[in-house]
Design brief:
homohexamer; alpha/beta; 5 helices; 5 strands; 36% helix; globular
Chain lengths: 154, 154, 154, 154, 154, 154
């Protein structure tokens, strides 16, 4: 059986923090799916196409990594993909409390486990919502997002 | 003087976590009022009637427990009901920081104290907003909400 | 049945923070026992007699409050006293994580519940081990301990 | 070179907690600018004019303190004002995690450092969003905001 | 290359919380080594032999799991065993802060990654030092430790 | 009046994290004193002379920085040196809770304020006690301590 991990998120945008977590999980799995959650009621800063394109570009040389979009529950997407694990990073104590709740509910709901890595220390401050705030005010986000020029504002 | 405790919340929905906290507080009081806060500007997932009905059904054999709705400040509702205590559960450190701020401000505002119990460990991951997310995506919430079939989506 | 709460600790020393928590719990119970844990292998800064005397002095006008010493498990002491509740204060998030673990284990071990109040905000920084550090260095601890002159160093 | 610190926020409203932090930072700087962030998409409870007037009134006898409004990134405002430091208060662990992320990203973005003071313990529960909730329900916010009568609801 | 994970600790005693984490990590690896750290200067409650025997007994039907003792740095033990991953559980926010620091230092020191699972919610209160405290006072630890009768006090 | 800040600690050893905090505080003060606390009952890993020598070496080109040892309360040392500020770094939420308590007690005891900087993200995992653990096991601590060769084990 292939070992498959799913790294879910809205990735608005996909930061260097996300990128680092995916690269570090890759050796552990046969396949890692970066799963962009699509919620029709949510307003995203960057277009869905550009977010997907951006992530694909970052991992184009990494044959184990694919990028997909999904709607609905993350655990349902995992089942559909026959993925055994959800993958997440933890930056700090507040993250840990939040992630713990979701991971334990997902486990109870579906049996699917969530594996965690601690974020790289230097990247741990990066936060997508602050990155958006910077971008909205015409600040330079290249310190926080690799190849940010690929992202297109909605 | 009757000892009265008020357990306030929006209960959208009322989870097994809420239920456990109420049942454990009951022996300490003559009367426990589960107080559903109504905020006309807020959008709830489940109808107010079905939320109230659901909670009443759960405690129909518990004569000390009643269910009411209220508008305005929680401490004003307590005064009106001559309740001496607010009752809350704590799931984790983030909860504790948030609850501490509210409890201390309520105490300063009104003299009304907030009593806390630690959530049952097994129920501590349950979070109403994740439950709503699951429901919205047609997931099964029966692991997190007793008699969830009584709830009606708005 | 009398409602009895036990407020346990080593109280080396009993600070204004402890005092505030006890005074606020008193109206809820018929009897509150301040229980000084005695561990023969532990080194205390203040003599056991002076710690007990100090606390008794603080509550001499509070007929519902008594002071006792105990050895062994806190929940065993509660059972012996027919106390239904352990009483504790929470100062911050770190406290909450620590207290949660103990409260849930005690509940599983004995069925005895732990009730929490948030510490008075102004008293929330007070910490017995820092108070000892100040005393050890001949600092003035009267801002943190009522009637500290009653305490005798071992 | 003049040492200049910027204390940024939406101050909706400016609480006793904010006031305390500013007063304690004043001795460290030649000039402290209280910077009211203006976001045209955000809905504030109190009018911008009354918020500015309120803060100016509180510090009218403090010649080192001025009040300004700004749009865009906080670090850009700092550069424009030649301010070397951002100033912030910390109330609890959750605050610390949140502030850490912003401070480290701001530092990386601009080289501007953020200095922190711990909030006065007695004022640490005060939270602008709870203050608004109280005001919305016609509660008395004077325990949390000095000269609250100067604030005008939008 | 065999995938090998090391679950390190002093396991004084090995609780149901530890046991759960190991069982959930097993499917991800070819081999999981439970590594009992031996520190000649530390005083353990249970004999080293009985701790090792106890853990071996728990996993006697799990061919992928072995139990070893080690001295020195955990990352050196991993290298010697050609293990690519350290394995740990997280119970709460305080754990997360502590584990983050160690995981990031170990990563920097050796390149060895630490993988985390969130503890099973119901087991999350279990804490070896409280278990020892209960045992020391002749309490029953069987709710927290499987086959606790195998452990021998030093 | 000269502005003087005191950075206190046992510095066993003085890590890159400490070093970064001091360098970032220097521009804000006329003088920064790194104050090595000496507690005759405590056992340190590195000799006091080598710890002092190590820190002096790191700041030999920084004329505003001096290194001193002190006994007794930190706030008493500050008064003796006419220092107005204590200086500290914060790494995470657990640190923040701990530091808050000490800072607020010191403020109440003496009027001396504590200023905080967030640790550099990349250095935030560094922890003196883990560094000692690595050294004790003959690990290489040079990633965590500049010029660690100057330190001599007791």
């Amino acid at each position: 059986m292939k070992s498959i991990g799913v790294f879910p998120g809205s990735f608005d945008p996909f930061t260097k923090g996300h990128e680092d977590i995916v690269r570090r999980f890759v050796p552990l799995f046969d396949e890692v799916i970066i799963a962009i959650g699509v919620n029709s009621k949510k307003q995203y800063m960057f277009t869905q196409d550009s977010r997907q394109n951006h992530i694909e570009e970052l991992f184009k040389d990494e044959s184990k990594v694919s990028v997909e979009t999904f709607q609905g529950l993350t655990v349902d997407f995992c089942k559909q993909k026959k993925a055994q694990y959800l993958l997440r990073g933890i930056r700090n104590a507040t993250d840990a409390d939040y992630e713990r709740s979701i991971a334990q509910m997902n486990q109870q709901l579906s049996g699917i486990e969530t594996l965690f890595l601690m974020c790289d220390a230097a990247l741990s401050p990066i936060n997508s919502s602050i990155v958006r705030e910077i971008k909205k005010n015409n600040g330079d986000i290249s310190a926080f997002v690799t190849k940010d020029e690929l992202l297109i504002i909605n």
